[in-house]
Amino acid sequence: MSRTQNGSYSADVELSLRIGRTVFPLHKVSPTRAVMRNPVDLEVGPAELVVSVDGNDHVSKVRLPLGASVDSAFVQIERE
């Protein structure tokens, strides 16, 4: 955790989608979709949603039922 200007603490949070050894940074996630920081074309298939809080990774297996397109930052996800 890092300390803010007013003396309170704030967690360092990073979101990403991992497919194989490739990591795609995310802007935000919801239970049914993710928003990619840099949209790319991805095929339909399995992936891992990685939520890192203060360096501790929490990994969830997900599926991309529609894949992803470089034309849209939004990616539909299904939890496995």
Report what the structure shows.
The chain is mainly beta. The chain has one domain. The protein is 0% helix and 57% strand. It contains no helices and 9 strands. The strands form 2 sheets. A 7-stranded antiparallel β-sheet has the order 8-5-4-3-6-7-9, with no helix packed on it. A two-stranded antiparallel sheet has the order 1-2. Strand 6 (45-53) and strand 7 (56-64) form a beta hairpin. The termini are far apart. The mean pLDDT is 93.
List keywords for this structure.
9 strands, 80 residues, elongated, mainly beta, single chain
Task: Quickly describe the structure.
The chain has strands at 2-3, 9-10, 13-19, 22-29, 33-36, 45-53, 56-64, 74-76, 78-79. It is mainly β and 80 residues long.
Name the poorly predicted regions. none
Helical/strand content category: mainly beta
The ordered H/E elements are EEEEEEEEE
What number of domains?
Answer: 1
> How many helical elements?
0
- Strand portion: over 45%
- In the sheet with the most strands, the strands line up as 8-5-4-3-6-7-9
N-C termini distance:
30 Å
* Spatial extent as radius of gyration: 14 Å
Which assembly state applies to the chains in this document?
single chain
Bin the helical content.
Answer: under 10%
Determine the mean pLDDT.
93
Tell me the major beta sheet. Answer: 7 strands, antiparallel
Query: Can you tell me the overall shape?
Result: elongated
Number of strands: 9
